[in-house]
Amino acid sequence: IPYLAIRRSSPSLQPRSEPNPTLDTVETLVENKFFGPICGGLGAFAIAWGLFARPEFGNLATRGAEFVRILKTDRLAYSFLVDMGIFALLQSWMVPDDMRRRGFEDPKALWATRLLPFFGLAYYMAIRPPLPLSEDAAEK
């Protein structure tokens, strides 16, 4: 979070049709168009697993009641719930800045990221244009 306070916006950069050659391995992976859908698919699988797998843990109502009980009694589980809320707020704040950096305007994608935490971000990551080349890398 300290990074968020000191970072600078770069709205003057224009999107490029080819990937940024200055990206390291992790950045290249995250810039891949398939990264968002893969993460969204893994999230959907995890939710489906929690709701429907392992029938010995009861039906949906039993699982829901147990989930609420755990949230009320376990501080770690409650902190995860708070973390997800903070992540949703940060996501809705950071995506517009990323859109400006990429020269990308899509109100549907912006509202998807604001109203659908995690899955909206996966959708945005699938449709966003490549990260623009920085001015320093353009001179090389």
Task: Compose a concise summary of this entry.
With 140 residues, the protein is mostly helical. Helix content is 68%, strand content 0%.
Q: Explain this structure to me?
A:
- This protein is an all-alpha fold and 140 residues long.
- Helix content is 68%, strand content 0%.
- It has eight helices and no strands.
- Helix 3 packs antiparallel against helix 7, helix 5 runs antiparallel to helix 6 and helix 6 runs antiparallel to helix 7.
- The model has no long low-confidence stretch (mean pLDDT 82).
Note the topology:
Layout: H1 2-6, H2 25-31, H3 35-52, H4 60-73, H5 75-102, H6 107-115, H7 119-127, H8 135-139
Helix pairs in contact: 3-7, 4-5, 5-6, 6-7
Q: Tell me what portion of residues adopts beta-strand conformation.
A: under 5%
Estimate the mean pLDDT confidence.
Answer: 82
Classify the secondary structure makeup into a structural class: mainly alpha
Tell me the number of helical segments per DSSP (H or I, 4 or more residues long). Answer: 8
Low-confidence stretches: none
Number of strands: 0
- Can you give the helix content as a percent range? 55-70%
Sketch the topology as an H/E string, one letter per element: HHHHHHHH
* Broad shape: elongated
What does the main sheet amount to? none
CA radius of gyration: 19 Å
What is the rounded distance between the termini? 32 Å
